[in-house]
Amino acid sequence: MADNKNLQSVLTEKRLFAPQPEFVARARLDPERLQALHAAAARDHVGFWADLGRKELSWHTPFGKALDDSKAPNYQWFGDGKLNASANCLDRHLGAKGDKIAIRFEGEPGDRKNYTYKELHAEVCRVANALKSFGVKKGDRVVIYMPMVPEAVMAMQACARIGAIHSIVFGGFSSSSLKDRIEDAGAKVLITADGGHRAGHIVELKKAADEALSQGCKTIEKVLVLKRTRHEVAFDVKRDVWWHDVVGQQKPSCDPEWVDAEHPLFLLYTSGSTGKPKGIQHSTGGYLLGAMTSCQWVFDLRDDDVFWCTADVGWITGHSYVCYGPLANGATILMYEGAPTVPDAGRFWKIAQDHAVTIFYTAPTAIRALMKLGDDWPKKYDLSKLRLLGSVGEPINPEAWMWYHTVIGKERLPIVDTWWQTETGSIMISPIPGAVPTKPGSCTKPLPGIAVEVVDEAGEILRDKDAGGYLVVTKPWPSMLRTIWGDNERYLKTYWSQFHNKYYVAGDSTHRDEDGYYWILGRIDDVLNVSGHRLGTMEIESALVSHPKVAEAAVVGRPHEVKGESVFAFVICRGERPHGAEAEKLAKELREHVGREIGALAKPDDIRFADNLPKTRSGKIMRRLLRSIAKGEEITQDVSTLENPAIVAQLAGKA
Ligand code: WT7
User: Is the CB of 392 under 6 A from ligand 1?
Assistant: First the structure.
């Protein structure tokens, strides 16, 4: 569970920021309209979503029954309706908004390119036809491993157009992670690029893809390769096809494949508390509705906005708030390929200025990093077009919130701190910017149609406003995950079994204050949140143990100024415990090893070698103790139940 200090600090946060009248005057939702939505959802939860489903989405075949709970908790929404996600994101805007810019793109080297809705539609159709020419059919899986370029969105939309299920693997993941995900999904085609630009370097995507494919991935028949960095890469003419060779030749039209609302739109792998990542499966109709309506409510998305969500398409945030949500609303998005500090610390703010960004949505880790670089950088740029700021991925500490509010928001802009997960598909708890006063560090209240509660260990709903416990969702919602790909048992066990299938268990602990505001305290399982990304401790431990010199490893999180949490590993070697220069050398080797096994973001910041781990007599590792040690705390816990109490001093680095 989250620690007390965290709880204490949020409990003393009393500042309240009411929406500015100018904002409220133009907002899609003012307090009254928000109240009406909440009331409608409270009267008839399913009817509320059914009305929105009919109004917001374009259906080829309208649905009859909105919710089928006969196989609960495998809920189905809009089950007998048929639609296509890409037709909803593109085709329906071609009339009135055909010449409106859909994507504004800026690469890290500074190259820029815009696509109107008409142009994007034509490109997506070409990619869809190329995939068809490879034999990709409805239900086939396509893995996408690309940089943050418009072609990544085109690839997603092209899959959706022909009913193929995409599964994006974040470009920062290693070849070994890529291989595992390709194999679990059983993908037929891989879409990648020669490389991407990041922090002044080239991310060697094709090289990693080749490594993954050389180690297995037998289901892959074709690899579609975008030329982005134009450096030399290996090319297997029997398997690889250049994007510019094949896509350019295709027809710019392709009829959308009408799929059932429940047809999987995509899989996205995320870490859990065990070693193996879970393929979170999302639907077409329900997912799209959640992504769409949350854009309208939370981001107050309007026709004249330029919406910049800085997340990579490799994460759920990039799916819902780069690709599907904004495009389904016919909005203009900004995509930026690279790092926030290249060529200098003002890059983000320069982009916001140059592209007249109005909505800026990023992660607390980025906010803290930018804050540390000083106020002079944002002050150099004209940020007057900004009208709304957002945060996602982890709890935002009040200091970072206040900096965002004063330096970027000029004490004028609303901040939406949005709580949600890969599994929830879209934002669940967040301020409505024109209606809900904010408190720094709180994601405030659930959205209309989202039923959230706090329960105790026994699963009893805590009715008092002021309550702490497990965060659960008590009613199904359209954009919820449908299952874990290929493992429904794990779906039931992970999210539902704890409270006997009554509630969806988010895995977070929370406090709800006397005003009914939610404060997310952190994960309750063995999952770390590093820079807003979930990493399973088991996953990192398995990677460490796969190194020939490692016998055993235990990984915990340690609070980190910028990343939120950093990875701290306790390692037991085969043979002698290394010391001095030898220990340093091995630590470096292990970091690289974890980078190769999972990806750079999982590399431990700290590695401590010991002769043993602290275990109870039944052999359980005392993680709570390891967490205290990692934080450098004085050990006040009772260690008498330990098999080996003497080890504590060594683990603390004192022996
Ligand atoms: C976990 C989900 C949803 C997109 C990014 C992360 C934490 C997320 C917040 C927030 C406090 C947050 C939770 C959650 N989290 N947003 N606004 N305040 N915590 O997606 O990788 O699926 O991780 O991120 O712990 O369970 P994800």
Answer: yes
